Amino acid sequence: MNAPKRRLLLVSLLANVAAGTWLLLHPADRSRAVAAPSVAANTPTGLPDSGKRGAASTLDSPITRGTWAALQKGSDREFAEHLRTEGFPPEIVRALLRERVRARFKDRLDVLQVDAKDEYWRNGLNPPRDSNLSVQARAERRAIYREIDAAVKSAMGADFDAASPSELAVRRRAYDYLSQEKIDQVTEIERDYSDLYQQIREAAGPIRLQSDREKLRLLEREMHADLAAILTPEELLEYNFRNGASANSVSYRLRLFNPTEQEFRALTQIQLEFDREYGTQGWNAAELARRREAETALDAKMMAALSPERAAEYQRVTDKNYQKTANFLDQYSYPPNIAGDIVDLQKSVTTRAESIRHNTSYSADVRRTELEGLYREASATLSAKLSPAALEAYKRGAGRWLQQLQPKPAPTNQRPAR
């Protein structure tokens, strides 16, 4: 899971925890607190409705600050059952239970933060980064969170895997072609190898030796072998289309292409074959040079798999200059087609500028005048497409080619007066 998705899930989780706690601690809103959990009947978890309270419901009495303490009595399993009795949906139960369990590990987690200096003048509002922790501390912290997960899973039983709508969407995208048993096996393999990858990267630090690269490549092969041992060839191929490094590489390359599913799968199949030969990570200098040399043929093969019209579009939107321009324009909410118009203008103007510079019949003054006129023409065209603020920012960044149309001031040969 990439960083933005992890941050989104974390925010969602914290919001759920806050909402559940707030409902329990605000007596004035008791009527809404009682009604709120009824949404559990509509959750897409496939679980039976747990919103009906029994005669012993804690919330049948006025809600006070003691309500939370009453719900927390007993074991983790009893705590989870109390929340279910009150009608909270499984994802809220899981979030609250995780916070309860995590509180028991607070001292052990706090000890690991000793190496991470939480200084406001260095970090601002952000907490200390993981990079401030030692390799051993990060390994110990991962082990603690595994203990927390194990405790939560033991207390919740089958409900541990109940998911919120956003989590369900992620699971469907990644694993909807697998049985639940195989999903559990695959996710466990992913988690184990994620830890191993992290350990190698942390031990290596910013400078990776050849031995580190070889370890990473070995892990990649072993993970593929472990997945192949539990999945059929068809399932493994589908996994690679949805979750593998090759598919991620193609998705990133095609982010401005808007491919159909058929196009994506055809291009990912080509990328898979390429990566089997050249690998996806851990190259030495010679291997990386060999891979980059082969990438020209890779692009040609991908274009050959598309229709002529789509191949032309692929070539256009995967151009680095196009992507740089599109990324800039996205900051100002301009549609991608504007990037195409600007790149076409750049190519046309750059070609004309080169013709002016190499025209030997031009004097220096004529050449300067022609280039200045070309600069004004290009600026006027851009002004019709971009706001003044966007145009100025473009000239300073992605549009630096415009500045090359302006002749540099002639050097002065005058010596400073003594």
H and E string: HHHHHHHHHHHHHHHHHHHH
Poorly predicted runs: 2-8, 21-55
User: What would the principal axes of the Cα set say about the shape?
Assistant: elongated
Number of helices: 20
The portion of residues forming beta strands comes to under 5%
Measure the end-to-end span.
67 Å
- The computed structural class is mainly alpha
Report the sheet with the most strands, covering strand number, pairing sense and barrel closure: none
Arithmetic mean pLDDT: 79
Helix content: 55-70%
Number of DSSP E strands: 0
Radius of gyration using CA atoms only? 30 Å
Features:
418 residues, mainly alpha, 20 helices, elongated
Tell me what you see in this structure.
It contains 20 helices and no strands. It is mainly α and 418 residues long. The radius of gyration is 30 Å and the shape is elongated. The relative contact order is 0.04.
Brief description of this entry?
Helices cover 67% and strands 0% of the residues.
Reconstruct the topology from this structure.
Elements: H1 3-25, H2 30-35, H3 65-72, H4 76-85, H5 90-104, H6 106-112, H7 120-123, H8 135-156, H9 165-175, H10 180-204, H11 210-230, H12 233-243, H13 245-253, H14 261-278, H15 285-304, H16 308-317, H17 320-330, H18 336-357, H19 364-383, H20 388-396
Helix pairs in contact: 1-5, 4-5, 4-8, 5-8, 10-11, 12-13, 13-14, 14-15, 15-16, 17-18, 18-19
